[in-house]
Amino acid sequence: MALMAQTLSHQCFHNYQQLYVNTKKPKNLLHSFSLPKPSFSISTKTHYKSSTASAVTPSSQHNPQLTLSQNITQLCEFGDLDEALLLLQQNNEIHTEKYEQAIAVNTLLQSCGKRKDIEMGRKVHSFVSELSQFNNDFVMYTRIITMYSLCGSPVDSRIVFDNLQKKNLFQWNALISGYTKNEHWIDTVLVFCEMLTVSEFKPDNFTMPCVIKACGGLSSVELGQGIHGLVIKMGLDLDLFVGNALIAMYGKCGVTQDAVTVFEKMPDKNMVSFNSLIRGYSENGFLDESFDVFRNMLESEDGLRPDVATMVTVLPVCAEEGKVEMGMLLHGLAVKLGLLHDLMVINALVDMYVKCGYISNARALFDKNVQRNVVSWNVMIGGYSREGNVQETFDLLREMQKEEKMGVNVITILNALPVCIEHSEMCSLKELHGYSFRNEFHCDEMVNNALIAAYAKCGSLSASNSIFDLMETKTVNSWNAVIGGSAQNGDPSDAVELFLQMVDSGIKPDLFTIGSLLLACAHLKSLKYGKAVHGFVVRNGLHLDSFIGVSLLSLYIRCRKASNARIFFDEMDVRTTVSWNAMIAGYSQNALPQSAIDLFREMQQHNVQPSETAIQSILTACAQLAALRLGKEAHCFSIKADLIGDAFVSSSIIDMYAKTGSIEQSRRTFDGLVEKDAVSWTVMVTGYGLHGLGKEAIEIFEVMHRQGLKPDRYTFIGILMACNHAGLVEEGLKYFSEMQSVHKIEPKLEHYACMVDMLGRAGHLDHAACLVEKMPDEPDAGIWGSLLSACRTYGNMDLGEKISKKLLDLEPGKAEHYVLVSNLFAGSGRWDDVRKVRQKMREMGLVNNPGSSWIEVGGKVYNFVASDDAHTESKEIHRMWRELEEKIRGIGYVPDTGSVLHELDEGEKEELLRGHSEKLAICFGLLKMTKGSILRVYKNIRICHDCHNAAKLVSKVMQRQIIVRDNKRFHHFRDGLCSCGDYW
């Protein structure tokens, strides 16, 4: 539009030449418009500061060798508009030639518009109105109309226009252009329609681009298409300016194909044409296409060179796509073309590097920039803030305040606030809040909303609510901020209450409100409230929105209603990639791994490209099923889909291999990572712990620490679990202490659970019980259960009975707790007490899940239950075990009937041992799998001593590696030995 405005200005100037061509003037007067600037400068001390200065002749204060217009130009360049007006008034008294006076007035009007000095513009307008020689002067009043629009007051432009006795096309165009420049889109269209109906003038190639731009501003493609039709009828469709405006309009309206059609039909194209199409593609999400147009521009035979507009259009596309390589090429091109001196290009480059994660590159460019403005600072501060770098964010913010005339604005505050997401940042948040208050930014709604969200994230819902309560005007965005803060940060019931208050206040909820409310219901696991919200969503037609659809899926998944979620998913009119991912993840989270895998396959049949989230869920499902073959297929799929570079996907692959028994492949994947973050190290530590490889877990934990990566609470769960399973008590106590003293991480319930289990397994029952007593939180059933199992192992009946009472009081409806108590009594031969416990279970209707094992053979998972003869090949399986038992008895196997906690004779106990599910699964694997292949068996409860001894000996007589994962850890059996060293 700037190019069009310059052309319109040139046309008006040309009209002046035609208007005064027959007046008396020196023959060389036309050359005065291109005279060079004077070489001298005027001292501000000699300038008149106001029009009230005493009148003097022009020759006494201004260069007599210059014309009036040249003197006015000089004054305007120095900003002395009052002096310029005074000079005009003085020269009017000595009857300066009309042509010269007109040029001088035009110069002053242009300067008023450029400086947006409307008060001076009104004085000049008044001066012109008093001069009879300018009555009905088309060009002069066109300039006045333009001046008012440049000063941001198209209303004044309209008043001037309406008072004209006669109007020409230039004045209509000036009025239409003024409305367009001030984004009064409807007024632009109305004046255009008025021009068509009440005047005889035909719109030209200056009128139509303004009107077309208004259609884009209104996002009205129908109106734009109508104007386009009119353009074709008038024969203006091949005009370069009109074509460029049409491309921009269709891009604004989201109809990129029509923009392409216009572009392709244009006989001539310039940089604006290409820039408009690139912007249209990028603003509508067609990022690859915008790059294609950029490449075509570079390869075109027209010799077009990218300009500032090109750079600031293409660089944000690089930022959006994370294509830093392309951004770097553009950086080099900007240097080559001499565009790096433009501040907008530098800011766009800094922004690109920031959003692509190259913060050091951005900072280097920022530091070299000597012409930084507030945008430059805001971009850099926002980059550090999004990275979570609190120190650099606030250091840069303080440095910005030291810069002269570099005031922090609302955007600065909004960019800095996202870094405040933890309670540790509360002081920094209060600092920002105080600064906002002192500079009256707290009156800005967006700042208040951001402060509400920040305080909620930092754990101060009371401060968040206080800011909200003090707001005089509460919009839907304000309510969303406080409801979202409560929903996401620990007080979902308060979020529901706030929603009810919002509705009572007459504010209509929007999609973000409903999304937060559904999140609150999900956190509360309140299916009742959730269904009520679902009803509201359906009644108001909001269920068609993809964001709300996914929120509803998440609600049912969090409430463990995967079947309800699937029904809703199947009824969705449009299933986005996010909805597929949510459903697949939901199945995985609800321990329905096979359903997750089946839906993933269905997703592929629908040609929906899986994202990182879907692959993570599938890898988790494979780990839950212990399906190594499927896991390998998912790994290959990740490589083919180019998702392996994602940190979470690679960590999920490491985790999958660890949990499916292939710790060697897990380590190979880990070693192959180009970049290892704290998550990948943590997963590897945990994987070693799961396999009982305590020394390896410690070794990799220490390497992680030496490389400067900070372990988190999950890392310490992994290392404590590793110490537990390997019996490394001293090491475990050391890391538990360092977690608090060195790394300042407060132990959670899961850390105490690891420590209690570790101490209990090692026989330090008193130490374990003492630790339980000192816990800041109430111990859960898992901790009491671990301690109770240790009491049975070491025969500590006194402590065991106390713990039994606590466990049953805590969760009286769990069958597994009664089984633990029963086993405690059975281990000491107290069969009367065993019968009482069993009788209590029967009276309460509690049934314990039987031991079960499963094995993957040929990509299919086969399940076995203890003492179950329902399998189709049950006879062959039992025959195989009898043969194996005979072989292993020959090398020392004796059935450990102490593992049978039932009051039976020895023969009956031995028969029960033969039916244990892991033995059945091992036999099936030996029958069905090729010789030499590894048997991988998975079990839902801890492996008993008898099966453990038997598996060791079977591995020796059959010369096969057997891997068994129970509900605690992995056991690798080979050559008659187990990786656990008989400690589990």
UniProtKB/TrEMBL annotation:
Name assigned to this protein: DYW domain-containing protein
Keywords of the record: Repeat
Family to which the UniProt record says this protein belongs: Belongs to the PPR family. PCMP-H subfamily.
Organism: Papaver somniferum
Domain DYW: 892-984
Classification via InterPro entries: DYW_dom, E_motif, PPR_At4g14850-like_plant, PPR_rpt, TPR-like_helical_dom_sf
Leader sequence segment: none
Record GO terms (molecular function): mRNA binding; zinc ion binding
